[in-house]
Amino acid sequence: MLDPVFVSIDEAAAMTSESQWTVKQKLRAGIYRAKKSGRRTLILVASILEHASNLPDAVFAPPSRAAVSAPPKPRRHYRRRSSAPNSNPSQRLRAER
After folding, report:
1. Confidence band of 85 (pLDDT split at 50, 70, 90)
2. Are 8 and 42 in contact (CB under 8 A)?
3. pTM > 0.70
4. Cα separation of 97 and 92, whole Å?
5. Strand, coil or helix: 25
């Protein structure tokens, strides 16, 4: 099967895992090259692949020793407020005054 030469904006967004808005922004910026066929905008697949090959490599920091060896923090449990009126002692004092 032949590889496509052109893709639509929807297909380019799916290919690159970008939104349609981002694809259109890259077209406006000249990052992707496109041709018109009637009303359709067709993006050159070669320009998408060229842009992808020019992206920098991802660099990840090694995990810190604290993150590797520290045990997880215990979860805090909060008491639910009572729905009864004047259940709080300070509220009771205010009500008695």
Report:
1. low
2. yes
3. no
4. 9
5. helix
